[in-house]
Amino acid sequence: MKDIMYKLFLFFSAAWLFVACEPEIEDFEPKAGDADFSSYVAVGNSLTAGMANNELYKSGQEHSFPSMLAAQFATAGGGAFKQPLMTDEAGFGSRFILGMSTDCLGSTGLAPAPFPGEPSPENFASIAEQGPFNNMGVPGAKSFHLLAEGYGQANPYFGRFASSQSASVLGDAMQAAPTFFTAWIGSNDVLNYAYRGGEADSVTPQPLFQQAMGGILQTLTSGGAQGVVATIPDITVIPFFTTVPYNPVTLDETQAQQLNAAYADYNAGADQMGVDYITFSAGANPMVIEDEDLAPIGGIRQIKEGELVLLTLPQDSLKCAGWGTQKPVPAQYVLDEEEIQEITSATVAFNSIIKDYADQFGLALVDVAAVMQEASDESGLRYDGVGYNVEFVTGGLFSLDGVHLTGQGYAIIANEFIHAINDTYGASVPTVSVTEYPGVQFP
Amino acid sequence: MRKLFLLTIAAVAFMLQANAGGFQVGLQGQRQTGMGLIGTGYLTGPSAVFFNPGGMSFLQGQYSFSLGISPIVSTVAFQYEEPSLYEAQTDNPVSLPFSLYGAGKINEKLSVGLGVYTPYGSSTVWGDNWRGRHIVQDISLMAIYFQPTISYKITETLGIGAGFIYAYGDVELNKGFPLQNQNGEEGQINVNGSTANYGFNAGLYFQPSETFSLGVTYRSEIMMEVEGGDATFSVPSSLATMFPETNKFNADLPMPASVNVGAAYGVSDQLTLALDVNYVFWSTYESLDFDFEENTASLQDLSQPKNYNDGAIYHIGAEYLFDETWTFRAGFYYDSPVVPDDYYAPETPDAVKLGYTAGLSFSPNRNLSVDASFLFVQGLERDVNYKPENFGGTYKYFGFVPGIGINYQF
Which residues of chain B have a CB within 8 Å of the CB of A19? Predict the structure, then answer.
């Protein structure tokens, strides 16, 4: 019997030797291909800086797409990547978080609310001596601002890390002697105007954009650097412009009739001018807005479907102060047909200029506009079992300001850059894991 | 030769087939496991209750019993689709398929038997934080079949048999829910439920000579219909009304039908060679649908397309009677994949699987044997994607199944 036990023991021992081995798959090997990532510099605006939730703050910067790219480049010969980090999570103090708030009608719901932390004074102090920096994304910057000397005096986000009073963003970027760059710029050339409902600021004229873009790329490539440029998304895929509907006012039959009676004089005038009446009916109604073209009959009209209302429109004014019905919504909250047309055609033109330059300078191109368009389709985007679309808060791509992305949104953009770089430069840079980063965070 | 047959029976059976396609486990007898999971056309003891009820009336002893367990140690390695450095590996608990059979003769022609066995089951644990967590963090599936069986020897060479199956099934699944709280922690969905249903297992066994036998069996599909299972949602508190914490769900999970054909041939007094082919109707598994009792604007029913294909498993095995005390076995099988490349979800390993088996029996006397088996399953590397969720990469599976059992007849 002992012998038998011994044989069985041997049999199982031999068997368990197999058990110790595990399946192995050949490792992926990152390669730089024809690219040289030893000194990577990112130039751009808030989207490059890592702004999220209406503010630039430390963890947001750490989740900027250039920071993600740099970490991936590091596996393929990339060097150190220095960012002009804020010292805390409050930045300059305008950060939003999602909170519960009660509106004028007494109903409570989720809404963006101020971040509770006070910004450290250190965030406002110069950190220029820590430079040169690799992430030269400056919130608010338009294309031509990158070339402007002394821009730090006009923009505190640059002022805090500009190398001197007279420094330009691009000049400081060149101090890092880039071998590789990303240049994603141009959004503010339309957005700064769009944010203000087309009532202030202006769309950058095309010749100026073309000249600025050319100058930026000429400078960045002057030392032989390779790089990537990216297109800018259309405003119709940005939740800041698409969340509030044109017809948010719900009325019953009586309310509609009272309002119709009140606008009888207006409608008589409208008849004479040959423009549309203001009429209400039971159900959802288009808002009454300001329109200076109609000054003879009071400078107001009803908004048309397709015209855009900004996210900043005070909801309480709409719900409790008669905005959109008894009082017109101020023009600064609305992009009318003409303004949308101006913005859209500029966006198309800028993107075409960006694409032409990508060809001309032999750069990789990321069509962010196309990615965002895809995200706005019904099925949206999907990564690792998580769906993303362009809806405010629930879509997961955009942060609480409705314009800047979440960490996960930036990771999706980072992967688009990586694919473009790999395709253009024969590199094998590994992608990032999108779901590892912060999304919209709920209380 | 009579002697060979006797010894074969003495060695009676436990089999496990390790993870044959989908979440099927094929380990229902040690002797069969040792020779490549073969048993449809080769009678080795009361495990005929499972392998071929038609053969049960050919068992030699008045009463036969067997009992065995086959712990499965399995690992799946994963490498995210290129270009990526992401790798993961399962940390699966050892699962413990078992089988228990008893058979007795009422008269020369008629036998009755009972089997209790676990033909389906898998436990896959990828971890709470791995990259595919929104598809599955961990899943465990388990089915126990209770099968009372009757077998009738129509002639001296032909037997028929059938068993009624009462199947009990249990499933639990955890997956990450992509809603973050203000610490960046994600939510989770847990679903678990159990159910029972009925089916049958029927077979014909033909033994025209002492050296040659043939068998064919059909096992019916059993649909595991979970009704009123628990669905628990952990989400940030502000969203609790949109995702009721305790919800119920209904879901159907098929245990597919199979047709099995096998034959055995005694090459010499000592050596028997055998073949088996299983055809499993996995195409029944088109989607896994979770129908939640309480839906909200944010919580809709879930449908995961599966689109499985039917699969075939080809077995070859040999048994060698060394002497009256020792018997040795070896076998091999080839298991074709049933999950299409674009619908490969990480919850179930599936690939071209090659199974290498070995086994031995020790019979201290004519009535008793102790049977040991070992199976190594190698899943070939597969580059696949679960397209509906855009999650893919390379998977590679290894499974190790040592098994032990005893047979007793008198």
Answer: 73, 400, 402
